[in-house]
Amino acid sequence: MNTKRQKSGRFLRTLGSMTKTEAWFRAFRLRTLPLSFSSVILGSLMALYKNSFDGSILAGALLTTLFLQILSNLANDYGDFVNGVDNDGRTGPERSVQSGVISAKEMKVAIIFFSILSFASGIWLLLNAVDNIEFGAITAFFIVGLLAIGAAIKYTIGKNPYGYKGFGDVAVFLFFGITGVAGTFYLHTAELSWIDLLPAVSIGALSTGVLNLNNMRDVENDKASGKKSLVVKMGFESARIYHFILLLVAVLSALAYTLINFHSGYQFVFLVTLPLIFQNARIVLTTDRSSELDQELKKLAFTTLLFALTFGIGLVY
Is residue 13 part of a domain? Predict the structure, then answer.
Protein backbone atom coordinates (compact mmCIF):
# COMPACT_ATOMS: atom_id res chain seq x y z
CA MET A 1 0.00 0.00 0.00
CA ASN A 2 2.84 2.40 0.83
CA THR A 3 4.45 1.71 -2.56
CA LYS A 4 1.17 2.51 -4.31
CA ARG A 5 0.91 5.82 -2.45
CA GLN A 6 4.48 6.71 -3.44
CA LYS A 7 3.74 5.96 -7.09
CA SER A 8 0.50 7.94 -6.92
CA GLY A 9 2.30 10.90 -5.36
CA ARG A 10 5.01 10.83 -8.00
CA PHE A 11 2.33 10.62 -10.71
CA LEU A 12 0.52 13.71 -9.38
CA ARG A 13 3.77 15.66 -9.06
CA THR A 14 4.72 14.78 -12.64
CA LEU A 15 1.31 15.76 -14.03
CA GLY A 16 1.92 19.26 -12.75
CA SER A 17 5.19 19.59 -14.63
CA MET A 18 4.76 17.51 -17.82
CA THR A 19 1.83 17.19 -20.23
CA LYS A 20 1.08 13.97 -22.10
CA THR A 21 2.35 15.49 -25.35
CA GLU A 22 5.62 16.40 -23.67
CA ALA A 23 5.82 12.89 -22.23
CA TRP A 24 5.43 11.35 -25.69
CA PHE A 25 8.16 13.55 -27.15
CA ARG A 26 10.36 12.63 -24.21
CA ALA A 27 9.66 8.96 -24.94
CA PHE A 28 10.56 9.47 -28.61
CA ARG A 29 13.97 10.79 -27.43
CA LEU A 30 14.50 12.75 -30.64
CA ARG A 31 17.99 13.73 -29.46
CA THR A 32 19.08 10.18 -30.39
CA LEU A 33 18.17 10.69 -34.06
CA PRO A 34 21.41 12.42 -35.13
CA LEU A 35 23.31 9.31 -34.04
CA SER A 36 21.03 6.92 -35.95
CA PHE A 37 21.00 9.17 -39.04
CA SER A 38 24.82 9.20 -39.12
CA SER A 39 25.05 5.76 -40.71
CA VAL A 40 22.51 6.55 -43.45
CA ILE A 41 24.16 9.88 -44.24
CA LEU A 42 27.64 8.38 -44.49
CA GLY A 43 26.49 5.41 -46.59
CA SER A 44 24.72 7.80 -48.97
CA LEU A 45 27.72 10.13 -49.27
CA MET A 46 29.93 7.14 -50.03
CA ALA A 47 27.47 6.22 -52.80
CA LEU A 48 27.61 9.80 -54.12
CA TYR A 49 31.40 9.40 -54.32
CA LYS A 50 30.77 6.31 -56.49
CA ASN A 51 28.32 8.32 -58.67
CA SER A 52 25.47 6.00 -57.64
CA PHE A 53 23.44 8.25 -55.35
CA ASP A 54 19.64 7.86 -55.35
CA GLY A 55 17.58 10.47 -53.48
CA SER A 56 14.61 8.14 -53.01
CA ILE A 57 16.83 5.59 -51.28
CA LEU A 58 18.24 8.27 -48.98
CA ALA A 59 14.71 9.41 -48.09
CA GLY A 60 13.51 5.85 -47.54
CA ALA A 61 16.52 4.93 -45.43
CA LEU A 62 16.19 8.05 -43.26
CA LEU A 63 12.46 7.48 -42.75
CA THR A 64 12.96 3.81 -41.87
CA THR A 65 15.77 4.70 -39.49
CA LEU A 66 13.57 7.37 -37.88
CA PHE A 67 10.79 4.88 -37.18
CA LEU A 68 13.18 2.16 -35.99
CA GLN A 69 14.94 4.54 -33.60
CA ILE A 70 11.68 5.78 -32.12
CA LEU A 71 10.48 2.16 -31.84
CA SER A 72 13.66 1.25 -30.00
CA ASN A 73 13.30 4.21 -27.63
CA LEU A 74 9.66 3.41 -26.86
CA ALA A 75 10.44 -0.27 -26.28
CA ASN A 76 13.33 0.69 -24.02
CA ASP A 77 11.07 3.02 -22.02
CA TYR A 78 8.47 0.28 -21.59
CA GLY A 79 10.86 -2.62 -21.01
CA ASP A 80 13.01 -0.91 -18.39
CA PHE A 81 9.88 0.13 -16.49
CA VAL A 82 8.35 -3.35 -16.53
CA ASN A 83 11.64 -4.91 -15.44
CA GLY A 84 12.14 -2.42 -12.62
CA VAL A 85 15.27 -0.77 -14.03
CA ASP A 86 13.57 2.63 -14.31
CA ASN A 87 13.30 3.61 -10.66
CA ASP A 88 14.18 6.46 -8.32
CA GLY A 89 17.82 5.33 -8.29
CA ARG A 90 18.30 5.86 -12.01
CA THR A 91 20.77 8.62 -12.92
CA GLY A 92 19.45 9.67 -16.32
CA PRO A 93 16.28 11.64 -17.15
CA GLU A 94 12.98 10.21 -15.93
CA ARG A 95 11.24 8.02 -18.51
CA SER A 96 7.66 8.56 -19.66
CA VAL A 97 6.10 5.32 -18.38
CA GLN A 98 8.12 5.63 -15.19
CA SER A 99 6.63 9.11 -14.65
CA GLY A 100 3.08 7.74 -14.81
CA VAL A 101 1.94 10.26 -17.43
CA ILE A 102 1.88 7.51 -20.08
CA SER A 103 0.50 4.14 -19.08
CA ALA A 104 2.17 0.85 -19.91
CA LYS A 105 -0.84 -0.10 -22.05
CA GLU A 106 -0.57 3.12 -24.08
CA MET A 107 3.13 2.50 -24.60
CA LYS A 108 2.45 -1.02 -25.86
CA VAL A 109 0.02 0.38 -28.45
CA ALA A 110 2.66 2.91 -29.56
CA ILE A 111 5.25 0.14 -29.89
CA ILE A 112 2.92 -1.83 -32.16
CA PHE A 113 2.16 1.31 -34.19
CA PHE A 114 5.82 2.15 -34.79
CA SER A 115 6.59 -1.50 -35.58
CA ILE A 116 4.03 -1.27 -38.40
CA LEU A 117 5.46 2.07 -39.56
CA SER A 118 9.00 0.63 -39.56
CA PHE A 119 7.86 -2.39 -41.58
CA ALA A 120 5.92 -0.30 -44.11
CA SER A 121 8.75 2.19 -44.51
CA GLY A 122 11.26 -0.63 -44.98
CA ILE A 123 9.10 -2.16 -47.72
CA TRP A 124 8.92 1.21 -49.45
CA LEU A 125 12.70 1.53 -49.23
CA LEU A 126 13.20 -1.89 -50.83
CA LEU A 127 10.70 -1.07 -53.60
CA ASN A 128 12.79 2.00 -54.42
CA ALA A 129 15.89 -0.20 -54.66
CA VAL A 130 14.34 -3.14 -56.50
CA ASP A 131 15.56 -1.92 -59.91
CA ASN A 132 19.14 -1.64 -58.64
CA ILE A 133 19.78 -4.92 -56.86
CA GLU A 134 18.99 -8.60 -57.38
CA PHE A 135 16.06 -10.45 -55.83
CA GLY A 136 18.34 -12.43 -53.50
CA ALA A 137 19.71 -9.20 -52.05
CA ILE A 138 16.20 -7.79 -51.67
CA THR A 139 15.22 -10.92 -49.74
CA ALA A 140 18.28 -10.59 -47.51
CA PHE A 141 17.46 -6.94 -46.75
CA PHE A 142 13.86 -7.90 -45.98
CA ILE A 143 15.10 -10.42 -43.41
CA VAL A 144 17.55 -7.89 -41.95
CA GLY A 145 14.69 -5.41 -41.65
CA LEU A 146 12.60 -7.90 -39.69
CA LEU A 147 15.61 -8.60 -37.47
CA ALA A 148 16.06 -4.86 -36.89
CA ILE A 149 12.44 -4.52 -35.74
CA GLY A 150 12.83 -7.54 -33.50
CA ALA A 151 16.12 -6.24 -32.10
CA ALA A 152 14.57 -2.84 -31.31
CA ILE A 153 11.84 -4.54 -29.29
CA LYS A 154 13.77 -7.40 -27.69
CA TYR A 155 16.51 -5.16 -26.31
CA THR A 156 14.58 -4.71 -23.05
CA ILE A 157 11.24 -6.48 -23.64
CA GLY A 158 10.41 -10.14 -23.09
CA LYS A 159 11.51 -12.91 -20.77
CA ASN A 160 15.17 -12.77 -21.82
CA PRO A 161 15.93 -9.29 -23.24
CA TYR A 162 19.38 -9.38 -24.79
CA GLY A 163 20.18 -5.90 -23.48
CA TYR A 164 20.09 -7.39 -19.99
CA LYS A 165 22.60 -10.06 -20.99
CA GLY A 166 25.34 -7.76 -22.26
CA PHE A 167 24.66 -8.14 -25.99
CA GLY A 168 23.44 -4.61 -26.63
CA ASP A 169 26.87 -3.51 -27.79
CA VAL A 170 26.93 -6.17 -30.50
CA ALA A 171 23.48 -5.16 -31.75
CA VAL A 172 24.39 -1.45 -31.86
CA PHE A 173 27.64 -2.15 -33.72
CA LEU A 174 25.90 -4.32 -36.32
CA PHE A 175 22.77 -2.23 -36.91
CA PHE A 176 24.20 1.29 -36.50
CA GLY A 177 27.50 0.48 -38.16
CA ILE A 178 27.66 -2.46 -40.55
CA THR A 179 24.00 -2.58 -41.60
CA GLY A 180 23.44 1.17 -41.39
CA VAL A 181 26.46 2.34 -43.41
CA ALA A 182 27.30 -0.66 -45.62
CA GLY A 183 23.64 -1.56 -46.14
CA THR A 184 22.71 1.96 -47.23
CA PHE A 185 25.74 2.09 -49.51
CA TYR A 186 24.76 -1.22 -51.12
CA LEU A 187 21.16 -0.12 -51.71
CA HIS A 188 22.50 2.87 -53.65
CA THR A 189 25.29 1.11 -55.57
CA ALA A 190 24.53 -2.65 -55.67
CA GLU A 191 28.19 -3.23 -54.79
CA LEU A 192 30.23 -3.72 -51.63
CA SER A 193 33.86 -4.59 -50.92
CA TRP A 194 35.66 -5.24 -47.65
CA ILE A 195 37.21 -1.77 -47.91
CA ASP A 196 33.75 -0.21 -47.81
CA LEU A 197 33.22 -1.85 -44.43
CA LEU A 198 35.91 0.31 -42.81
CA PRO A 199 33.75 3.48 -42.51
CA ALA A 200 30.93 1.24 -41.26
CA VAL A 201 33.25 -0.02 -38.52
CA SER A 202 34.01 3.61 -37.57
CA ILE A 203 30.36 4.57 -37.14
CA GLY A 204 29.60 1.27 -35.44
CA ALA A 205 32.41 1.79 -32.92
CA LEU A 206 31.37 5.39 -32.17
CA SER A 207 27.73 4.37 -31.76
CA THR A 208 28.73 1.54 -29.44
CA GLY A 209 30.72 4.11 -27.49
CA VAL A 210 27.52 6.10 -26.92
CA LEU A 211 25.81 2.99 -25.54
CA ASN A 212 28.85 2.26 -23.37
CA LEU A 213 28.64 5.74 -21.85
CA ASN A 214 24.96 5.20 -21.17
CA ASN A 215 25.73 1.92 -19.41
CA MET A 216 28.64 3.44 -17.48
CA ARG A 217 26.35 6.21 -16.25
CA ASP A 218 23.71 3.71 -15.10
CA VAL A 219 26.03 0.94 -13.90
CA GLU A 220 25.11 1.05 -10.21
CA ASN A 221 21.37 1.08 -10.78
CA ASP A 222 21.64 -1.58 -13.51
CA LYS A 223 23.63 -3.79 -11.18
CA ALA A 224 21.08 -3.40 -8.40
CA SER A 225 18.19 -4.04 -10.80
CA GLY A 226 19.68 -7.19 -12.32
CA LYS A 227 20.42 -5.64 -15.72
CA LYS A 228 23.74 -7.23 -16.70
CA SER A 229 24.99 -4.77 -19.29
CA LEU A 230 28.48 -5.25 -20.64
CA VAL A 231 29.70 -2.58 -18.22
CA VAL A 232 28.19 -4.48 -15.29
CA LYS A 233 29.87 -7.66 -16.51
CA MET A 234 33.33 -6.21 -17.16
CA GLY A 235 33.39 -3.62 -14.38
CA PHE A 236 33.59 0.17 -14.51
CA GLU A 237 37.38 0.42 -14.83
CA SER A 238 37.52 -2.06 -17.70
CA ALA A 239 34.68 -0.15 -19.37
CA ARG A 240 36.93 2.92 -19.46
CA ILE A 241 39.58 1.01 -21.45
CA TYR A 242 36.92 -0.56 -23.65
CA HIS A 243 35.61 2.91 -24.45
CA PHE A 244 39.07 4.15 -25.41
CA ILE A 245 39.54 1.13 -27.71
CA LEU A 246 36.21 1.82 -29.42
CA LEU A 247 37.23 5.42 -30.16
CA LEU A 248 40.66 4.31 -31.36
CA VAL A 249 39.18 1.68 -33.68
CA ALA A 250 36.82 4.31 -35.13
CA VAL A 251 39.66 6.69 -36.00
CA LEU A 252 42.05 4.01 -37.30
CA SER A 253 39.39 2.43 -39.52
CA ALA A 254 38.59 5.81 -41.08
CA LEU A 255 42.29 6.55 -41.61
CA ALA A 256 42.83 3.14 -43.21
CA TYR A 257 39.97 3.68 -45.68
CA THR A 258 41.23 7.18 -46.50
CA LEU A 259 44.79 6.03 -47.18
CA ILE A 260 43.63 3.10 -49.31
CA ASN A 261 41.27 5.32 -51.34
CA PHE A 262 43.29 8.53 -51.23
CA HIS A 263 42.63 11.01 -54.02
CA SER A 264 42.40 14.39 -52.29
CA GLY A 265 43.59 16.17 -49.17
CA TYR A 266 39.95 17.03 -48.45
CA GLN A 267 39.50 13.43 -47.35
CA PHE A 268 41.28 14.22 -44.09
CA VAL A 269 38.75 16.90 -43.11
CA PHE A 270 37.11 14.39 -40.73
CA LEU A 271 40.18 14.84 -38.51
CA VAL A 272 38.54 18.06 -37.23
CA THR A 273 36.55 15.72 -34.96
CA LEU A 274 39.72 14.39 -33.29
CA PRO A 275 39.83 17.05 -30.53
CA LEU A 276 36.23 16.15 -29.62
CA ILE A 277 37.02 12.44 -29.64
CA PHE A 278 40.19 12.88 -27.57
CA GLN A 279 38.35 15.10 -25.08
CA ASN A 280 35.66 12.44 -24.75
CA ALA A 281 38.28 9.76 -24.14
CA ARG A 282 40.11 11.90 -21.57
CA ILE A 283 36.99 12.58 -19.51
CA VAL A 284 35.80 8.96 -19.63
CA LEU A 285 39.22 7.72 -18.51
CA THR A 286 39.35 10.07 -15.54
CA THR A 287 35.90 11.06 -14.26
CA ASP A 288 33.80 9.31 -11.64
CA ARG A 289 30.81 11.65 -11.95
CA SER A 290 27.67 10.33 -13.63
CA SER A 291 26.61 13.84 -14.65
CA GLU A 292 29.78 14.24 -16.72
CA LEU A 293 29.21 10.88 -18.40
CA ASP A 294 25.69 11.95 -19.34
CA GLN A 295 27.01 15.13 -20.96
CA GLU A 296 29.74 13.19 -22.80
CA LEU A 297 27.10 10.78 -24.09
CA LYS A 298 25.30 13.67 -25.82
CA LYS A 299 28.56 15.12 -27.11
CA LEU A 300 29.71 11.81 -28.57
CA ALA A 301 26.38 11.38 -30.38
CA PHE A 302 26.86 14.83 -31.96
CA THR A 303 30.51 14.05 -32.72
CA THR A 304 29.44 10.87 -34.54
CA LEU A 305 27.14 12.87 -36.81
CA LEU A 306 29.87 15.44 -37.44
CA PHE A 307 32.31 12.60 -38.15
CA ALA A 308 29.91 11.07 -40.71
CA LEU A 309 29.30 14.41 -42.44
CA THR A 310 32.95 15.49 -42.64
CA PHE A 311 34.15 12.05 -43.69
CA GLY A 312 31.53 11.79 -46.43
CA ILE A 313 31.87 15.36 -47.71
CA GLY A 314 35.66 15.06 -47.75
CA LEU A 315 35.36 11.87 -49.76
CA VAL A 316 33.05 13.46 -52.34
CA TYR A 317 35.26 16.51 -52.79
Answer: no
